[in-house]
Write a structure and sequence with these properties.
Length: 232
């Protein structure tokens, strides 16, 4: 019992960490909580055995949605660690919490009963990391992407998107986006999809947390607006 309380105390102590677009100290959730990065050998009955989680052929199949189509992901080329799966929850967070381990490039959605759904993610490159506690203010399907002024200054070719790039399969925000707010303020960071499935497990974005499009669609359906998020 004391070990569980100590783990929870560690995360609660992170509540004061600020979200920052610049350099920040990134803690390793795995080291802090001794997370088990292996999948469960036998799924416990605390979460339904969903074939859309346990069958990679279904998880990463092609998707058609209105005028948009997403190609199938060659999941064999994605390291097994980063494919969607059910694992024991070692975060100590309440069910329904998103927990992002930036060091391991993994996102956990905690479930009732002691399990979590785990997804591989890509994160911000050096100089764009962020961490802290916040909430998902709202979420969007096929979101419009508007690059911030600082990004346009670094990449002038993006000036054509000053008023936004329409949603679609090639949009950098992918098929879905979850908008992260802290204390009622937009952090400008998102949890979103990406057409670049090969970038999962890498640090190369401008600070956002990105998933394979098929994974962000799955996460979007499971996470309501107002859900808490912890990024470490």
């Amino acid at each position: 019992m004391s070990k569980i309380l100590n783990r929870r105390g560690v995360l609660l102590g992170l509540a004061g960490l600020p979200l920052a677009a610049g350099c920040s100290q990134v803690m390793n959730l795995g080291d802090t909580l001794n997370l088990d990065y292996t999948t469960t050998g036998a799924i416990r009955p605390s979460i339904s055995v969903d074939p859309n989680i346990t069958d990679p052929e279904k998880m990463y199949a092609a998707i058609s949605e209105g005028p948009y189509s997403l190609p199938a992901v060659p999941y064999q080329k994605v390291p097994a660690k980063y494919r969607r799966q059910i694992v024991p929850d070692r975060t100590g967070e309440a069910p329904g919490t998103i927990v992002v381990d930036t060091k391991e490039h993994l996102l956990y959605l905690t479930q009732p009963g002691g399990d979590a759904i785990r997804y591989g993610v890509g994160i911000g490159k050096a100089g764009f990391e962020w961490s802290g506690r916040a909430g998902i203010q709202y979420k969007k399907k096929w979101p419009v992407w508007t690059p911030p002024a600082e990004m346009i200054a670094r990449r002038p070719e993006l000036v054509k998107y000053t008023n936004g790039q329409e949603g679609g399969p090639t949009n950098p925000l992918g098929a879905r986006a979850l908008y992260i707010f802290k204390d009622g303020q937009d952090t400008l960071y998102r949890v979103h999809g990406s057409p670049e499935w090969w970038s999962i497990g890498q640090s190369m974005s401008s600070g956002c947390v990105r998933l394979i499009n098929q994974d962000i669609i799955d996460l979007y359906e499971r996470v309501p607006a107002g859900a808490p998020i912890v990024v470490i």
